[in-house]
Amino acid sequence: MVAMTNRQFMCGLLLGLAIVSSPAIAAESPCQTSPLAQRLSEPLNSLRKLEVPIATRQSTEGGFWEVYFRANGDVHSIVRRVFGETGQRETRLTFLDRQRYAIDDVMMTYEEPLSPSRETIIRDRVSTKYFFCDQNAALSPEAQGLKSDFFEADEIARFVGRR
Length: 163
Prior knowledge:
- With 163 residues, this protein is α+β, with helices and mostly antiparallel strands.
- The protein has one domain.
- 18% of the residues lie in helices and 37% in strands.
- The chain has helices spanning 6-11, 23-26, 33-41, 141-151; strands at 2-5, 14-15, 20-21, 48-53, 63-69, 75-83, 87-95, 101-110, 122-132.
- Strand 5 (63-69) and strand 6 form a beta hairpin.
- Residues 6-28 have low confidence and may be disordered.
Protein backbone atom coordinates (compact mmCIF):
# COMPACT_ATOMS: atom_id res chain seq x y z
CA MET A 1 0.00 0.00 0.00
CA VAL A 2 1.29 3.47 -0.93
CA ALA A 3 -0.36 6.76 0.07
CA MET A 4 0.10 10.25 -1.33
CA THR A 5 -1.57 13.65 -1.29
CA ASN A 6 -2.29 15.64 -4.45
CA ARG A 7 0.86 17.68 -3.96
CA GLN A 8 3.03 14.58 -3.59
CA PHE A 9 1.18 12.92 -6.46
CA MET A 10 1.81 15.89 -8.74
CA CYS A 11 5.50 15.99 -7.76
CA GLY A 12 5.87 12.27 -8.41
CA LEU A 13 6.83 11.37 -4.86
CA LEU A 14 5.54 8.16 -3.32
CA LEU A 15 4.78 8.03 0.37
CA GLY A 16 5.06 4.50 1.77
CA LEU A 17 4.34 3.37 5.29
CA ALA A 18 7.22 5.37 6.70
CA ILE A 19 9.47 5.73 3.66
CA VAL A 20 9.48 8.42 1.01
CA SER A 21 10.79 7.10 -2.30
CA SER A 22 11.86 8.81 -5.49
CA PRO A 23 10.28 7.65 -8.80
CA ALA A 24 13.53 5.78 -9.61
CA ILE A 25 13.34 3.77 -6.39
CA ALA A 26 9.60 3.29 -6.87
CA ALA A 27 10.30 1.48 -10.14
CA GLU A 28 11.90 -1.28 -8.04
CA SER A 29 8.98 -1.34 -5.61
CA PRO A 30 6.60 -4.33 -5.75
CA CYS A 31 3.68 -1.88 -5.96
CA GLN A 32 3.77 -0.24 -9.39
CA THR A 33 1.58 2.83 -8.90
CA SER A 34 1.69 4.23 -12.47
CA PRO A 35 -1.06 1.98 -13.91
CA LEU A 36 -3.16 2.53 -10.78
CA ALA A 37 -2.67 6.30 -10.92
CA GLN A 38 -3.60 6.33 -14.61
CA ARG A 39 -6.78 4.33 -13.99
CA LEU A 40 -7.65 6.55 -10.99
CA SER A 41 -7.36 9.67 -13.17
CA GLU A 42 -9.76 8.37 -15.85
CA PRO A 43 -12.99 10.38 -16.02
CA LEU A 44 -16.15 8.53 -15.05
CA ASN A 45 -18.74 10.56 -16.96
CA SER A 46 -18.81 8.25 -20.00
CA LEU A 47 -19.31 5.07 -17.95
CA ARG A 48 -22.63 3.48 -17.03
CA LYS A 49 -23.55 4.47 -13.47
CA LEU A 50 -25.72 2.85 -10.81
CA GLU A 51 -26.62 4.84 -7.66
CA VAL A 52 -26.98 2.87 -4.42
CA PRO A 53 -28.21 4.38 -1.12
CA ILE A 54 -25.82 4.22 1.84
CA ALA A 55 -27.31 1.78 4.37
CA THR A 56 -25.52 3.14 7.44
CA ARG A 57 -26.24 6.81 7.93
CA GLN A 58 -22.93 8.61 8.51
CA SER A 59 -24.09 12.18 8.07
CA THR A 60 -27.14 14.28 8.84
CA GLU A 61 -27.02 15.56 5.25
CA GLY A 62 -26.93 12.04 3.76
CA GLY A 63 -24.91 10.30 1.14
CA PHE A 64 -24.88 7.62 -1.56
CA TRP A 65 -22.72 5.24 -3.55
CA GLU A 66 -22.15 5.45 -7.31
CA VAL A 67 -20.96 2.29 -9.07
CA TYR A 68 -19.37 2.83 -12.50
CA PHE A 69 -19.15 0.01 -15.06
CA ARG A 70 -16.89 -0.56 -18.07
CA ALA A 71 -18.55 -1.49 -21.38
CA ASN A 72 -17.97 -5.21 -20.65
CA GLY A 73 -19.90 -4.94 -17.36
CA ASP A 74 -16.88 -5.06 -15.03
CA VAL A 75 -16.76 -2.54 -12.20
CA HIS A 76 -14.39 0.34 -12.99
CA SER A 77 -14.92 2.47 -9.88
CA ILE A 78 -17.14 2.94 -6.86
CA VAL A 79 -17.60 6.41 -5.39
CA ARG A 80 -19.00 7.14 -1.94
CA ARG A 81 -20.34 10.67 -1.42
CA VAL A 82 -21.20 11.84 2.08
CA PHE A 83 -22.46 15.35 2.74
CA GLY A 84 -22.28 17.44 5.90
CA GLU A 85 -23.16 20.92 7.05
CA THR A 86 -19.57 22.18 6.83
CA GLY A 87 -18.16 20.00 4.04
CA GLN A 88 -18.35 16.81 2.04
CA ARG A 89 -16.27 13.73 1.46
CA GLU A 90 -15.88 11.92 -1.84
CA THR A 91 -14.02 8.61 -1.75
CA ARG A 92 -13.32 6.74 -4.99
CA LEU A 93 -12.23 3.12 -5.24
CA THR A 94 -10.86 2.21 -8.68
CA PHE A 95 -9.84 -1.28 -9.75
CA LEU A 96 -6.97 -2.24 -12.01
CA ASP A 97 -7.82 -5.85 -11.21
CA ARG A 98 -9.02 -7.74 -8.10
CA GLN A 99 -5.60 -7.59 -6.43
CA ARG A 100 -4.56 -4.06 -7.40
CA TYR A 101 -6.73 -1.03 -6.72
CA ALA A 102 -6.52 2.57 -5.57
CA ILE A 103 -8.58 4.81 -3.30
CA ASP A 104 -8.73 8.59 -3.67
CA ASP A 105 -10.10 10.21 -0.51
CA VAL A 106 -11.18 13.82 -1.07
CA MET A 107 -12.26 16.08 1.81
CA MET A 108 -13.93 19.35 0.85
CA THR A 109 -14.55 22.08 3.43
CA TYR A 110 -17.13 24.79 2.78
CA GLU A 111 -16.43 28.51 3.19
CA GLU A 112 -19.52 28.73 5.42
CA PRO A 113 -21.98 26.14 6.74
CA LEU A 114 -24.74 25.10 4.33
CA SER A 115 -27.62 27.52 3.99
CA PRO A 116 -30.50 27.66 1.50
CA SER A 117 -30.03 31.43 1.28
CA ARG A 118 -26.55 31.37 -0.33
CA GLU A 119 -24.39 29.45 -2.75
CA THR A 120 -22.10 26.82 -1.27
CA ILE A 121 -18.44 27.69 -1.82
CA ILE A 122 -15.73 25.09 -1.31
CA ARG A 123 -12.84 26.65 0.64
CA ASP A 124 -10.44 23.69 0.76
CA ARG A 125 -10.07 20.46 -1.17
CA VAL A 126 -7.58 17.90 0.12
CA SER A 127 -7.01 14.63 -1.73
CA THR A 128 -5.05 11.63 -0.47
CA LYS A 129 -4.43 8.67 -2.75
CA TYR A 130 -3.83 5.12 -1.51
CA PHE A 131 -2.52 2.35 -3.77
CA PHE A 132 -3.09 -1.30 -2.83
CA CYS A 133 -1.03 -4.01 -4.51
CA ASP A 134 -0.82 -6.71 -1.88
CA GLN A 135 -3.86 -7.63 0.18
CA ASN A 136 -1.58 -8.83 2.98
CA ALA A 137 0.47 -5.62 3.22
CA ALA A 138 0.52 -3.68 6.47
CA LEU A 139 -1.89 -0.75 6.21
CA SER A 140 -2.00 2.57 8.01
CA PRO A 141 -5.13 3.09 10.14
CA GLU A 142 -6.44 5.58 7.56
CA ALA A 143 -5.94 3.18 4.64
CA GLN A 144 -7.45 0.27 6.58
CA GLY A 145 -10.50 2.39 7.46
CA LEU A 146 -11.10 3.44 3.85
CA LYS A 147 -10.63 -0.12 2.60
CA SER A 148 -13.14 -1.32 5.22
CA ASP A 149 -15.65 1.37 4.17
CA PHE A 150 -15.81 -0.25 0.74
CA PHE A 151 -15.22 -3.93 1.37
CA GLU A 152 -17.45 -4.24 4.43
CA ALA A 153 -20.48 -2.28 3.16
CA ASP A 154 -23.29 -4.79 2.60
CA GLU A 155 -25.10 -2.61 0.07
CA ILE A 156 -22.18 -2.77 -2.42
CA ALA A 157 -20.85 -6.23 -1.51
CA ARG A 158 -21.95 -7.65 -4.85
CA PHE A 159 -19.67 -5.18 -6.65
CA VAL A 160 -16.51 -5.91 -4.63
CA GLY A 161 -14.95 -9.12 -3.41
CA ARG A 162 -14.52 -9.27 0.37
CA ARG A 163 -10.82 -8.82 1.18
